[in-house]
Design goal:
With 457 residues, the chain is an alpha+beta fold. The chain has helices at 21-28, 40-49, 69-75, 91-94, 99-126, 155-161, 210-214, 228-234, 241-252, 256-262, 265-277, 285-289, 298-302, 304-317, 329-337, 355-365, 417-424, 430-435, 447-453, and strands at residues 54-59, 81-88, 131-134, 166-167, 173-174, 182-189, 321-324, 342-345, 376-383, 388-395, 398-403, 411-416, 439-443. It is 38% helix and 16% strand.
């Protein structure tokens, strides 16, 4: 092979003792000195200047964020404190029964939150403070989901710890002034913040239960119980598990006609719009109807009957497809509470990929209504690659999961951990697993049918 006519000049070798120009320039520059002290008043003004509507602060030693400490430090080892901030949404858009209007507001405000977080971090970096803006909603850390969350920072508990609001029974943060028509952001900094606010002394939630009345899948109970699986299966249809279920449907459909028997053209287009424009919430009615907050409570106080007629009824009366798990509490709720809505049975898409995630997943998939008449102690002994021992107790529509073997078992399950993960992820044949001795069941085997009914599959 011939050499090119013109060869690049080799980089000149530097003699011993000569510094690289970049290093020399950095040494000659005026040192920044001690970076700015971060006081809460100064930081609040900075956040508002960067576009936030309010901000609060919490140091890393706060007890309510210790369960996030390892994840935060893994993303930013110098983390010493968190800046939590809120950006308001237009409540009238969120309340629209037309989901395109509501989701456009979610998308625009979400992008604004990320821009504000980046602006705050950029300003602090210019002052010599190391800062990292966490994404508002960009969960990509799913290697261990569902045993671990797929995002770095859980913005809601950080906002509560920073004094920006309290959680309502609908599991949304309610700001005392803006209500729950907000989106949250977090910036992590490398030094503690002086004068962090205490938590809000009261809960802005009015306990009006309008979120209970509006939820199309019954995810929010009047006593405060929350069904994660019901909310995730429908409202987050185009986010987590629903997308997995849609891909499964494509792969397993033998023809276009079979695919269209599973998904109509509207669903296909909706998923395409989700991929191209951004995933959209199917409901989020709990946020829409919430009247709490000084800026939004006026119409509710002026005429509650008119507020319900104008805001709540259109969402309740809307004819729409509601995604539910087979035999789930949500399926039964839609059929009895909203007979004009169309329940569609789908798979939730939450499948375990580790032995530990099996038992974390049980908490997410528990069906309290189906468990009403079930009582039993189920002990699991897993061997193989991920050995562990757990006891699952179901009694009086409650679920308890304990480490080790607790109490007297009604059913004992012995299984290879990889085999059990494969069975629950629907990748293994249960009959072959039982015949091959990979799974053994002792005790009141008939209770396993009741056990299965207590969890959405």
């Amino acid at each position: 092979m011939s050499k090119p006519d013109i060869e690049p000049e080799p980089a000149p070798r530097r003699r011993m003792g000569q510094e690289h120009p970049t290093i020399a320039q950095a040494r000659a520059a005026t040192p920044l000195g001690d970076p700015v002290n971060l006081s809460s008043d100064w930081l609040h003004a900075l956040c508002v200047e960067c576009g936030a509507d309010d901000a609060g602060f919490v140091n890393m030693d706060h007890p309510d964020i210790q369960d996030q400490r390892a994840d935060i430090l893994a993303s930013f080892p110098r983390a010493s404190a968190l800046i939590s901030f809120v950006c308001r949404m237009n409540p009238h858009s969120i309340r629209s029964p037309l989901r395109s209007v509501a989701n456009s507001e979610f998308h625009h405000t979400g992008r604004h939150v990320d821009e504000v977080g980046r602006a705050i971090a950029r300003r602090l970096i210019e002052l010599g403070v190391a800062a990292m803006n966490e994404p508002m909603a960009f969960p990509q850390e799913f290697a261990e989901f569902p045993a671990k969350k797929g995002w770095i920072v859980s913005h809601k508990p950080v906002a509560v710890a920073a004094g920006l609001g309290k959680m309502g029974i609908h599991r949304n943060v309610i700001h005392p002034k803006f209500g729950n028509h907000i989106l949250l952001g977090t910036v992590v900094v490398d030094r503690e913040i002086e004068g962090t606010k205490r938590e809000l002394e009261y809960n802005p939630c009015l306990e009006c239960k309008l979120c209970v009345a509006a939820c199309p899948v019954g995810a929010i109970s009047p006593d405060g119980y929350f069904s994660f699986s019901a909310c995730q299966t429908h409202n987050y249809r185009e986010f987590l598990g629903g997308f997995v279920d849609w891909v499964d449907g494509i792969v397993t459909s033998g023809s276009m006609n079979e695919y269209r028997d599973r998904f109509n053209d509207g669903e296909t287009v909706s998923m395409w719009q989700s991929l191209s424009y951004g995933p959209s919430y199917k409901a989020a009615y709990c946020i829409a109807v919430c009247p709490a907050g000084e800026d939004v409570i006026g119409p509710f106080l002026a005429d509650r009957i008119e507020y319900v007629r104008e805001v709540v009824r259109p969402l309740q009366e809307k004819v729409e497809t509601i995604y539910v798990g087979a035999g789930s509490d949500a399926e039964r709720y839609v059929e009895t509470r909203f007979p004009h809505k169309i329940p569609k049975v789908v798979k939730g898409g939450i499948a375990p990929n580790t032995a530990e995630s099996i038992f974390f997943g049980l908490k997410l998939l528990f069906q309290r209504g189906n468990a009403k008449n079930v009582s039993g102690v189920f002990q699991f002994t897993l061997t193989g690659r991920e050995p562990l021992v757990r006891t699952v107790t179901i009694a009086r529509a409650n679920l308890e999961i304990s480490e080790g073997l607790v109490g007297k078992p009604d059913v004992s399950i012995f299984a290879d951990s990889d085999t059990l993960v494969g069975l629950l992820a629907r990748r293994r044949n249960p009959f072959l697993a039982l015949a091959g001795g990979k799974v053994r069941i002792k005790g009141k085997v008939r209770l396993m049918r009741d056990f299965q009914r207590c969890f959405q599959v």
